Amino acid sequence: MEGFSRRNFLAGAGAAAAACSVRPLFALVPKSPFKIGVISDEISPDFDHACSVISKDFGLQWVELRSMWGKSLHELSDSQLSDAEKILAKYSLRVTDMGSPLFKVDWPDAPKSSFSPKHDFGANDSFKQQGELLDKYMALAKRFKTDKIRCFDFWRLDDVKPHRAAIDDQLKKAAETCGKNGLLLVIENEFECNTATAPEAARILAAIPSRHFGLNWDPANAVMRGELDAFPVGWNLLPKNRILHCHVKNAVKGPDGKIAWSPVDKGFIDWTAQFRDLKNIGYHGAVSLETHWHGAATHEESTRISWAGMKAALQNSGTL
């Protein structure tokens, strides 16, 4: 204690208080069984700003990559990808997965889906391009040090049965390709695609038992497809050891009777209970905020509101 004075102590205390005012205290020693993250473009297309919010304001260490600077990840130049790597290092953020648009296309030789014009997040028009797209995302996954690539189950058909076996085979082959490269293919139950609900998710996991293939569980997407009891009823149908990723958002029934996106703490999904159940099954993967609700003035403000609800649910469930 030689040379230590009250002035030194007060100066050190002041510095510590200043540091905590910049970064939330809980972020200094994050305690959660989950990798808590946010899809960056739900905050802003400006990747640096989005990462600043995730790290400094939300106090998190994980980010899901889907698009940045107005382009899907696979459309970025090598220089832009290098900039993204520098930004991640700047904010000490790690990547949960590649939020790719793989297989968000029409299935060939089938009637055109009513959803196929919606080519969001860089989804390509052609089925033939999907092999090249998978190659790009495998390279991107290795570059950004994650082992997971998100995919979909093709734009939803009114009658998928005549094509179901062939689609399953295509997904199985993609999972095998990922496995040979030390990666996992993670299918999202998406309300505009052929796997949208919990029963449909359980079916495809049974049809493709590969250890390289799992589920990105999104209960709100199932609600949007009309499965209002996605949690807990739909959840109870899922093989829990196959859940590899989780998207966090919510949905409500609006005044017009239609389902609409909502902040995380308002809607059909009880996220406190869902987080508790994820913890109870020993899940240690990502829970990634995918706001979708844009009821506030900006996407960033909407995401801040949803993060507040998500954080409260995590705390109330004993997972933060």
UniProtKB/TrEMBL annotation:
- Looking at the record, the residues that make up the Xylose isomerase-like TIM barrel domain are 56-300
**Which residues belong to the signal peptide in this entry?**
none
What is the name of the protein in this document? Answer: Xylose isomerase-like TIM barrel domain-containing protein
**Species name:** Edaphobacter dinghuensis
- Lineage, highest ranks first: Bacteria, Pseudomonadati, Acidobacteriota, Terriglobia, Terriglobales
